[in-house]
Amino acid sequence: MLKEKLKNHNIILASGSPRRQQFFRDLGLDFEIRLKPVKEEYPNRLTHFEISDYLAQLKAIPFKDELLKNDILITSDTIVWHNNTALGKPTDEADAFNILKSLSNNTHEVITSVCFTTKTLEKTLHSITKVSFKAFTDEEILYYIKTAKPFDKAGAYGIQEWIGQIGVTKLEGSYFNVMGLPTHLVYQTLNSLADRPI
């Protein structure tokens, strides 16, 4: 359905994340993957969704000069927001342990921002999901880190993995957003972009 509406557009997904790529396949879209390295740094004054919005927009900058008139570039960023701090990807096992220990028996927010860029437009949206975890034992945290190696995930966990299955006690918002893409917003935005004249 959406694929037919977008037949005159070229969707470019600028993400190496297998989960995000799978979401686009699941939405039934034709797309290409283009990757460019970006240093993911942001000004200290930014907080909450401002951080993920800024990083999603930052990831689009290297592509802007090469976009054709029918291209729609999609860049995104996910952060975990907890205790007024943005938790990114863990640097090592000790960092992953400390992050998960801080999330244990607590509620945090997962924020994913998605930036849609064409030759004439840039639109950034974000989705916020509240996730509550049970109290984890140290053994559970260590087992998860050893088996899942969650070093490519913001907040040191994937909700679809073992720790999510045993740990999530409450979820408010989009589950898919926690996995890395608010698919409902992506679908809605691509529909509106498809209706715009090229």
Explain what you see:
- With 198 residues, the protein is α/β, with parallel strands linked by helices.
- It is built from eight helices and seven strands, in the order αβαβαββαββααβαα.
- β1, α2 (18-26) and β2 form a beta-alpha-beta unit.
- The two termini are 19 Å apart.
Task: Give the key terms.
elongated
Number of strands: 7
Q: Determine the N-to-C terminus distance.
A: 19 Å
Beta-strand percent range: 15-25%
Overall outline: elongated
The value of Rg in angstroms is: 17 Å
Helix-strand sequence: HEHEHEEHEEHHEHH
Helix content: 25-40%
Flag low-confidence runs. Answer: none
Major sheet characteristics: 7 strands, mixed
The average pLDDT value, as a whole number, equals 95
Number of helices: 8
Structure class: alpha/beta
Task: Please specify the SSE layout and strand pairing.
Blueprint: H1 2-5, E1 10-13, H2 18-26, E2 32-33, H3 49-60, E3 71-82, E4 85-87, H4 93-103, E5 107-117, E6 122-133, H5 138-148, H6 162-167, E7 168-172, H7 175-179, H8 183-194
Parallel strand pairs: 1-2, 1-3
Antiparallel strand pairs: 3-4, 3-5, 5-6, 6-7
Short description:
This protein is of the alpha/beta class. Helices cover 35% and strands 25% of the residues. The longest helix is centred in the first third of the chain and has 12 residues, at 49-60.
